[in-house]
Backbone:
C-alpha cells in the first residue's frame, strides 16, 4: 500500500525525522490562508504518481496570492490520469545540498538494503545508471536492525560535516521501515538548508501482507482493482478486448502471453487466487464483463485447492448476464463434475491453456 | 530418488487440523507420502486421517521423528511455525502459506542455519513422482521420469507438469520455490541439486516477471552439464507498479520478462516461447 | 541492581502482567486504611532478603484491625539484619495452583534461559534439586527474542487449560527482561486463583552495566558498599581485621585467599579497579580504615593501566590518618617512582602478593 | 608462533584517539605488535604515534588490511564496535572495554560467525612473548617459553605471568578471556588451541568464583595430552549475592571456589593452592 507524501511525512515526523511544517488543503483559499501564516511556501499535488514536478504539480509561491493562484491551477490538473484533489502546502526550505536515502528489500540477499547518495534530487535514477559509485549501498541484518556504525558510515559518505544529523535520520528512517512493515521508504531529496536537514519529499509503501497488523488505511477510490482486492483477488485493467479469469498469477500471465501469441489482446489481468468458490467466480465475472470493449472471455482454471465444480457453478449462474462468448478450460480437482455442469450451456471447452487461448482469440475475431 | 525428498521422507504437517491442512494431508497420504505426525496447538492427542496430532513440533519430534515439515498455518503465525520447525531440527521445511509479511520472511531467512532448508513461502511444494509429495500439487498430473522442474509459480507449475506428463516426459522432481519477494531456496539452490542428481537428465526452469531470481541463476546454469530449458511468463503483462526509485536502483534490471529473456539468451540459456515449445525443446535434448 | 518487590510489580503490571492491587505503606494506620478498602489483604515486608515468609515478614490479614496489628509487628522486625521500613499491602488472592517462571542468563550458552515449573512456591529450589524433570528450560535467541511457539510450549507444560494466559505472561515477562536490561526476572508463585492468573511475588535485577540507559534508581542506604560503588570501586565488608585494597577483582580474591592461607582474616574485599588515581586511593583508604576492628592494611597493586606513582601519592597523603601498619606491594607502571615516594614513610614493602599477605598477617598479629 | 596472534598479526585499534587507546597503542607498538591502523569516527586522516587513523573500520580495511582488532571504546558503544569489526571480516576481535551491558554481549555472541573470534569483553587481551601483544598486559612481565596461560582475571593474570617469568617459566601465549558473565571465547576454546599448538608444553588455567566456566572446561581437559594446572581464587571470598532462585536453578553448581576445586580435582585436574604452588607443579611436570 502506497502512502501519499503527506501521510508518509506525518509518520516520518512522528519518528523524529525533520520535515518542513505543512498543511493539507483542498482549495485555493485554504492554500492562501496557510501561506499567510508560513510565508514562502511550496504547493505540492498529492497524487500517487511520479514526475509531479516535471508535470507542473509542484510550485514555489512567495506570497499568499501566488500560493492561492498556484493552488487553483494545480487543483485543476490531472497527473498521469489522476485528478489532483489534495495539496500539501509546505513552508519553503531552500536546499543547499540535495541528498538521497532509500531503504527497500534486496530480494537476492533476502534483507533490507539502504541506499544513499550525496547527489539526490530528481535525477537520482540517472545518477544510479551513470555514476553508480555515487550510490552507497549497505545491507542490514533484519535480526539486529541497523548498527550505529552503519548509519554513521553512510552519513560520512554523504556529508561529513553534518554526519551526525544524517546518521540520525537514517537510523530513524530504518526504524520506520521495520515498524511500519514497509517495502520502501525514501527521502529524495534529503536537503541541507540554512535551517538544518529536512526531508523535502517522502515515499512510503507498506507491505500489503502486513496490513493486518498496521492500522494504515487506504483511501477508497471505487476502482475495479480495489473491488477485486477486497474480495481477495487481483485485477489489473489493460487495453485489449479479451477478458481473462485465471487462478494463479503465473498461469494468468502465461494465459495473457498465449493470447498475445495467437494475435489477441487481453482486456485485463485477473487472478482469482487459490480456493476461489462460486461466489468469487461470479464477482470476478462481474468485474471483467463490466468492460464494454469486451469481445470474448477466457476462464482458465487448474484446480488444486480450487474446485472445478465450484468454478462451474459460478459461471453457470452468471451466464444470463454475459453477452460475449466464453471459452473455459477446467482441469484438476472435481474436473468431471465441473465439465458436466457446463456441458449443457453451450460454452466452448478447452483442455490446455494454449488451446483455450487459441480458441478465445478466434471467437473474439469472429465477433468483430 | 528425488531431490530433497524420497520414499524415506518422514513428514510432519503443521496446521493439520485446518480445512486446507486436513484436505492436503489426505491428498499427500493418498499420493504415498510418509506422513508421521501433525501439529496443531491445543489439538494434541487427536487424529486426522489416522495421523497422530501433537501440541508442538517438539512433541511430534520426540514421538514420531519427522525429518521434514509442511506448513499450512495462517500467514500471521506462519513465520513462528517456520522458527519452530527449524529449532526442532527439521531438515526440509515447505511453507505453503500465502500472504506472510515480507519482514517476517527476512527474519526467518536470516535466522535459518544451513542444516534447515526452506521451500517457499507461498509455494506449491515439491513432488518426486512415485516417491513422495510435500505440498499441494494435484496428485494426478505427475509421471516418474528424468526431467527436473523448478518454478516460481503455483498453478503454472501444474500446467507445465501436466503438459510434460501428457507428452510422456516424466519428472524426477518438480519443485515450486514460491512467488514471494523473499523466499528460502533459490533457483540456483535447486539447480545445484538437479545437477548432482543422477536421475535428472534435463531441467525446466519456469520464471516470471519481477525481481532478478532468473538472472541470478544464470551463472550457475552456465556451469551445468545438463540442459536447462527456461520459460518466462509475463511478456504481455502490464509493467509492475514502480517501487519509488529504490526498486530500480537496487537491481540493475527492471524485472521485465523481455529483459529476463534477453539476459538468459545472451548467456546461452535456451528460452522456450510457449509451453508446447518446452516439450519440443526437451524432446530435442533428450532424443 | 535489585528491585524491591513492589517496584518490580509496578513494572510487571505496566507490562500487562496481572498482579494483585496493592499499596506501599510505612505505618500500621496506613495498612489498616488500605485493608478497609481492599478487604482481606496480605502484608509483605519490603526488604532485599529471601526467606521473608519463613522469618514472619509476610502475614495474611482478614480485617483492618488484623492488618494494622500485623503491620505494626512487621515494621518492628529486622530480616537478615535488614530493618523493615516499608510494607506492601496487597489484596489477598487465594492460590489454587502455584507455578514458577524465571528468566535469567545462561552464561554457558550466552543467551537468556526461561525456566518454568508447575510446582512453584517456596520450595522451588528443592524441586529443582529433587525433581529436575519438573523444571522446563528453554533458551531464547537474543536476536529474535522469544518465539510465540516457545511461550506456548512452556505454558502447555505448566497448565494446558490456562495455557494462553500463561503464555501471555511469559511473553510479557521476557519483554520486561530485555527492555529493562535484566539479569533476572522471576515470578514465584505465578498463581492460578478463582479470579484468574496473578503474579503473587516479583523479583527483578537490573544489570548494573546498563543503568546508564535505564532510569531505575537505587534507594540510597548510605552504606560503605554504596559509597565505593559511586566512586567506581567495589567494596564488601567482611568479619576479619586486615583491611585490603587491591586493583582487580581476581587479584583481590587471590589476596584474600593468601591472607587466609597465612592464617589471617580479611576485614573487607576492595577492588579499586583499573586506572585508579590518587584521589580514589585516598577514598578507598578512608572507607577501609573506617572499620574499628582493623589491625593492619594490605595494599596490593599490579599496575597496568593503574600507575604506581598515583597510588603512592594517595597513600602518602593519607598516612597521617591511618593508625595501623600498612604493607604495600607495588608492581608495574611507574613502579620505581612509586617506591621512591613511599620509601621515606616507613611503610613495609613487598614484591609479591604472597609476600605481602604473609607480612600483613604477621603485622596484624604483632599488634594484638 | 603464539596461538591466535603472531609476528604477522596486523592490528587495528578501535578507539585509538582516546586516552587509554592512545596510551595502550603506544605500549603495544613498543612491544613489537604490528599495528597497521586506528579508527575513531570523525578523526579520520589524523595520526596517533605514527599510526594512520580512519573514520570507519571499512576504510581501515580498505587502506591497511588489518586481520585483528582491539577495542578501547566506551561501554555504551563497544558492542557496536564489535559488530563493525565482525562485519568487516576481522578474524580476531579483542574487547578490553569493561562495563558493557550483558544484553549487548548476548546479542554480539549470537551474531558472531565462527570466522570472527572474540576475546572478552572486559579482558586484558592476549600476549605472545617476542611476537605480538594485543591488549593491556604490562610489557615487562612476559618471557618467551612453553607455558600456555589462560585466565578470567585482569591483574591476577599479570601476577601469575610475572611469577612464571621470574621463575624462568616462559610463556607461549598468555590469554585473558574476560571476567564478564557473557564473553566470547571460553576456557575450552583456548585450551583447544593450546592443545594443538606445538610450542605449548603445559597450560595454566586461572579461574575464579562465579558461573561454571571452569567446570565447563573439564570435559575438554580430560581429553588433553598436555598437563593443565588450574588455580582458582575466591576460596575466602564472601558468598556472591544470590540471583533469586533462578541463578541456583540454571546451573547445577553454586559457583563457589570450593565447589569448582572439588569438581576439578574429582576429574583429575591438578589444582594449585597458591601462585607459588603453580610454579612448583609446573616444574614437576616440565622437569
Residues:
Amino acid at each position: 500500500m502506497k502512502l501519499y507524501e503527506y501521510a508518509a511525512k506525518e509518520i516520518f515526523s512522528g519518528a523524529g525525522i525533520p520535515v518542513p511544517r505543512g498543511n493539507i488543503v483542498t482549495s485555493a483559499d485554504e492554500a492562501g490562508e496557510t501561506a499567510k501564516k508560513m510565508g514562502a511556501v511550496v504547493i505540492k499535488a498529492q497524487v500517487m504518481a511520479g514526475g509531479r514536478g516535471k508535470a507542473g504539480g509542484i510550485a514555489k509561491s512567495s506570497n499568499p496570492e501566488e500560493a492561492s493562484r498556484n493552488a487553483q491551477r494545480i487543483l485543476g490538473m490531472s497527473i498521469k490520469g489522476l485528478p489532483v484533489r489534495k495539496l500539501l502546502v509546505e513552508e519553503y526550505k531552500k536546499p543547499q545540498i540535495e541528498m538521497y536515502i532509500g531503504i527497500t528489500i534486496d530480494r537476492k540477499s533476502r534483507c533490507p538494503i539502504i541506499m544513499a547518495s550525496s547527489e539526490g534530487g530528481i535525477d537520482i535514477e540517472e545518477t544510479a545508471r551513470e555514476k553508480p559509485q555515487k550510490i552507497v549501498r549497505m545491507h542490514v541484518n533484519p535480526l539486529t536492525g541497523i548498527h550505529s556504525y552503519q548509519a554513521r558510515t553512510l552519513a560520512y559518505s554523504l556529508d561529513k560535516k553534518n554526519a551526525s544529523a544524517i546518521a540520525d535520520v537514517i537510523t530513524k528512517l530504518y526504524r520506520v521501515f521495520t515498524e511500519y512493515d514497509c517495502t520502501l521508504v525514501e527521502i529524495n531529496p534529503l536537503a541541507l538548508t540554512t535551517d538544518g536537514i529536512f526531508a523535502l519529499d517522502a515515499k512510503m509503501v507498506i507491505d500489503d501482507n502486513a496490513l493486518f497488523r498496521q492500522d494504515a488505511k487506504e483511501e477508497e477510490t471505487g476502482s475495479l482493482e480495489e473491488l477485486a482486492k477486497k474480495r481477495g483477488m487481483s485485477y489489473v485493467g489493460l487495453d485489449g478486448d479479451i477478458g481473462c479469469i485465471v487462478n494463479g498469477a503465473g498461469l494468468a500471465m502465461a494465459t495473457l502471453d498465449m493470447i498475445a501469441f495467437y494475435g489477441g489482446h487481453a482486456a485485463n489481468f485477473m487472478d482469482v487466487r487459490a480456493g476461489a468458490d462460486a461466489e468469487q467466480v461470479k464477482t470476478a465475472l462481474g468485474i471483467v464483463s463490466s468492460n464494454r470493449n469486451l469481445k470474448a472471455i477466457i476462464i482458465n482454471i487448474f484446480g488444486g485447492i480450487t474446485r472445478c465444480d465450484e468454478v462451474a457453478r459460478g459461471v453457470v449462474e452468471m451466464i444470463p448476464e454475459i453477452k460475449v462468448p466464453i471459452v473455459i478450460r477446467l482441469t484438476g480437482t472435481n474436473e468431471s463434475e465441473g465439465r458436466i455442469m457446463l456441458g449443457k450451456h453451450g460454452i466452448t471447452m478447452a483442455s490446455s491453456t494454449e488451446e483455450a487461448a487459441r480458441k478465445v482469440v478466434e471467437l473474439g475475431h469472429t465477433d468483430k | 530418488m528425488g531431490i530433497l525428498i524420497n520414499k524415506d521422507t518422514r513428514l510432519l504437517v503443521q496446521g493439520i487440523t485446518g480445512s486446507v491442512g486436513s484436505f492436503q494431508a489426505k491428498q499427500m497420504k493418498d499420493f504415498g507420502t510418509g506422513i508421521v505426525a501433525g501439529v496443531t496447538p491445543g489439538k494434541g492427542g487427536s487424529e486426522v486421517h489416522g495421523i497422530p496430532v501433537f501440541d508442538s513440533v517438539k512433541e511430534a519430534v520426540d514421538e514420531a521423528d519427522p525429518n521434514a515439515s509442511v506448513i499450512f498455518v495462517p500467514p500471521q503465525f506462519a513465520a513462528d511455525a517456520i522458527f519452530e520447525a527449524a529449532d526442532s531440527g527439521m531438515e526440509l521445511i515447505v511453507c505453503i502459506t500465502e500472504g506472510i509479511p515480507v519482514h517476517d520472511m527476512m527474519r526467518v531467512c536470516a535466522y535459518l542455519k544451513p542444516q534447515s532448508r526452506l521451500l517457499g513461502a507461498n509455494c506449491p511444494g515439491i513432488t518426486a513422482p512415485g516417491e513422495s509429495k510435500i505440498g499441494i500439487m494435484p496428485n494426478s498430473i505427475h509421471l516418474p521420469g528424468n526431467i527436473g522442474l523448478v518454478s516460481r509459480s503455483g498453478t503454472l507449475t501444474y500446467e507445465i507438469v501436466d503438459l510434460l506428463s501428457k507428452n510422456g516426459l516424466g519428472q524426477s522432481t518438480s519443485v515450486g520455490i514460491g512467488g514471494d519477494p523473499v523466499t528460502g531456496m533459490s533457483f540456483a539452490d535447486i539447480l545445484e541439486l538437479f545437477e548432482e542428481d543422477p536421475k535428472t537428465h534435463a531441467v525446466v526452469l519456469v520464471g516470471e516477471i519481477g525481481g532478478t531470481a532468473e538472472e541470478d541463476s544464470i551463472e550457475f546454469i552456465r556451469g551445468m552439464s545438463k540442459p536447462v530449458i527456461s520459460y518466462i511468463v509475463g511478456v504481455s503483462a502490464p509493467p509492475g507498479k514502480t517501487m519509488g526509485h529504490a526498486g530500480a536502483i537496487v537491481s540493475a534490471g527492471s524485472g521485465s520478462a523481455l529483459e529476463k529473456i534477453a539476459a538468459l539468451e545472451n548467456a546461452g540459456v535456451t528460452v522456450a516461447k510457449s509451453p508446447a515449445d518446452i516439450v519440443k525443446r526437451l524432446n530435442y535434448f533428450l532424443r
The mean pLDDT of chain C is 92. Chain C touches chain B at residues 141, 143-144, 147-149, 152-153, 156, 160, 163 (CB under 8 Å).
